[in-house]
Specification:
Metallo-beta-lactamase, Chain A; seven-stranded mixed sheet; globular; alpha+beta; 18 strands; homodimer
């Protein structure tokens, strides 16, 4: 008598547990560390690589938002399913490879990161290496503004140049403000005073030899145009990377983390040098991004930090791109 | 006369362009390919690694959603800033490392991927290797249901076992349905008929020797419990991975891509074997996820495919976790 295929299958399945038990082996160890964090996409013929520097982890202080309470901030964190009482702000420099130039836009928190968030940031050099970049090949570092999480990575822990062959392209207005002794002497807000001290620490002769200022509304390098977005700092600059019919608006800190400051464009962040001007810039840029459905790359967006913006309630909401397995 | 620091800095910056021009070098080549796509997180003492298999790229057919038009689907795609007329559905198997067991939940589209989306999927083995996994170390493959994008990866292109030392743990109800010759003979919908053919092709003697069925509401392996979520297929199963006070709901295809089917829980997807039951399951699970603010891992969510769910309009919206640089 011949068994039917169905009977054989049923019997096989039932016996499977006994027949197929693999020989006992040691359990595979857990990896214990995150994947490298980089992500590539094309803008026309330009290849962009987002290279994550990690995140901050700062307690929410009473002055974190000048015109909102700590409980307002916690409500916004909770609405985004995030831990309360802490600000985990992502840092996302990008590499722009035009084919002729290899430029890094902003540098992250530096090789050792911010000590207040030990181990969580200062990851740019690791992730650049994981993405296959040799720091010696970087021709240009383009700086958006002079806050530590954007410039500290210019120097390595031993104060040598992190990008030894790169020109350092900085916004003229920003350089003028932070290098002006009169402005420094008139600064009163503790975070601005600290900002001046950090800039002066960082601007070693080695750095200054490589600094070249650029102007708003002009190309910084071919394909990358500087856009005035002052407020967060006096010379705060965004960039439009464009090629063919494609472009992306690289917004730097027009909003800090969008889960707080795009949702609440009216909030005045403690690090804004001029929070009223920062809010005006933010509303203008975000209304444009919504109207034009323009791709935006946000330094403090969650990695991979590139997406679109929609209106949401009385503010805006970012919609990150879906991960693309090819580019 | 001594120059002031300010004068020196200004002069240095102005000269920088001439002094610091690096020697001409060949431009760095563009990478031309995406980063590996894997992402780790902990659930108590269990380490989960999301390992992306790529995405589909299917034209939106008139029957893509049984009770919505192609223009309705295009409107939903446009609302999520996605290309119209195509369905780019992500595939995200996960590795569950309990410390004692190394289990893969679902297998993706197989080594060669779906030919209709050539090169965009079939990336699981590449990404497993990038994440440091040896396929020989995988003890168990846990299957949610018998659609090709979940089971085809059990076999390599040459029909050998992709995970040669793994037991294959399958939902009892699902195995019974697709292996039943009577059910097969009664199938009329072309996609269900194709499903039967694909399952029978895949269930080689080598596979069947390793198959062991599991029941709903029981642990499949320690820490992973099977949850009945029928409708998409008769034996469609979700899993709760739990350890200590933490858990994640691994939803398989309770919704297909959330940018379509979480936003529109009322939509009947062409691959649902019983779309009415699928909708009932979807509403029940999503109301629970919202009420409990429970972490959810979605096979067809955009990578890294883990997040939370909120109510949005007449449906739901996923809020992916922010990328964590450590685990």
């Amino acid at each position: 008598m011949q068994s039917s295929r169905r009977e054989i299958l049923a019997a096989t399945a039932a016996l499977g547990a006994f027949m197929a038990a693999p020989p006992a082996r040691a359990a595979a160890p857990q990896a214990g560390q995150q994947a490298p964090a980089f992500y590539r996409y094309k803008v026309g013929s330009i290849e962009i690589t987002v290279v994550n520097d990690g995140v901050s982890r700062m307690p929410i202080t009473d002055d974190f938002v000048g015109n909102a309470s700590k409980s307002d901030v916690n409500a916004a964190l909770e609405a985004s399913f995030l831990e309360k009482d802490f600000y985990a702000g992502p840092y996302n420099p990008i590499i722009v490879n035009t084919g002729a130039k290899l430029a890094l836009v902003d540098t992250g928190t530096g090789e050792t990161g911010f000590q207040s968030s030990k181990g969580l940031n200062g990851r740019l050099l690791l992730n650049l290496a994981a993405a296959g970049f040799d720091v010696k090949d970087i021709d240009a570092v383009i700086i958006s503004h002079y806050h530590g999480d954007h410039i500290n990575g210019l120097l390595k822990a031993d104060n040598s140049l992190a990008f030894p062959n790169a020109e350092i392209l900085v916004p003229a207005q920003e350089h003028k403000f932070w290098m002006d002794d009169g402005e420094m002497s008139r600064a009163t807000k503790p975070r601005v005073v600290f900002g001046f001290k950090n800039v002066r620490r960082l601007m070693t002769p080695d750095i200054l030899k490589r600094v070249r200022t650029y102007d708003w509304d002009k190309e910084v390098i071919p394909g990358v145009t500087a856009i005035a977005t002052p407020g967060h700092t006096p010379g705060h600059t965004s960039h439009v990377v464009a090629s063919g019919n494609s472009k992306v608006y690289v917004q730097a800190d027009v909003t800090h983390a969008p889960f707080l400051f795009a949702r609440h464009p009216e909030w005045h962040f403690m690090l804004d040098v001029d929070p009223v001007a920062a809010e005006a810039t933010r509303r203008k840029v975000y209304d444009m991004l919504v109207a034009e459905r323009m791709l935006v790359q946000g330094f403090h967006y969650p990695f991979p930090a590139v997406g679109h913006v929609e209106k949401s309630g009385s503010g805006y909401r970012e919609v990150l791109v879906n991960w693309n397995p090819t580019i």
